[in-house]
Amino acid sequence: MSQHFGFNPTLDFAIERTIDASPRLVWEALTNPAHLKEWYMPREWGRVARAELELRPGGIIRIDIVVGGGQEVPNVGCVLEVVPWQRLVWTSMLFPGYRPAVFDDIPITAIMKLEAAGTGTRYVFTALHRSEADLTANKESGFYQGTEIAIDQFVAHALALK
User: Which residues lie closer than 8 Å to 69 by C-beta, 6 or more apart?
Assistant: First the structure.
């Protein structure tokens, strides 16, 4: 995948944080399934039941969550790009092995970019959507708010690993 993509504010959103931890440590918190389980789901909304991440193009990303009264919601996608300590890209529009996905949710492609910033890391999460309607629906569903909460939890978790 190209390092360059056209961010379009009518289709995409991005959330940025500076983390006082090395890119290596932030990468560990981002990609280790045991760590993903700790921060991925906003705690007040639910929990992660299982996490699996195969760090190779075509690999699986699975983060099944438990919400509300115990309903388990599967989330399976396909890893598109892995550049250790710099970038992880995955999509919910494909299953592992690049198989076309069947979904009842609004699909996204997620780009997680890390850059050294002084002694810390600049982290940018970007969610790409198919259409303005998908972006609007995702924002209205709480996906954007939940992502902000999860990223705050991610930052706290990465700092706790220091």
Answer: none
User: Which tens digit of pLDDT belongs to each residue from 20-55?
Assistant: 999 999 999 999 999 999 999 999 999 999 999 999
Q: Would you list the DSSP string of 51-76?
A: EEE--STT-EEEEEEEETTTEEE--E
CA distance 129 to 68: 26
Give tens-digit pLDDT for 101-135: 987 789 999 999 999 999 999 999 999 999 999 99
Alpha-carbon separation of residue 119 from 43, 68, 89, 92 (angstroms)? 29, 40, 24, 33
Q: What is the 8-class DSSP label of residue 9?
A: T
Specify the 3-state DSSP secondary structure of 139: helix
Is 17 strand, coil or helix? strand
Cα torsion 55, 4, 156, 152: sign: negative
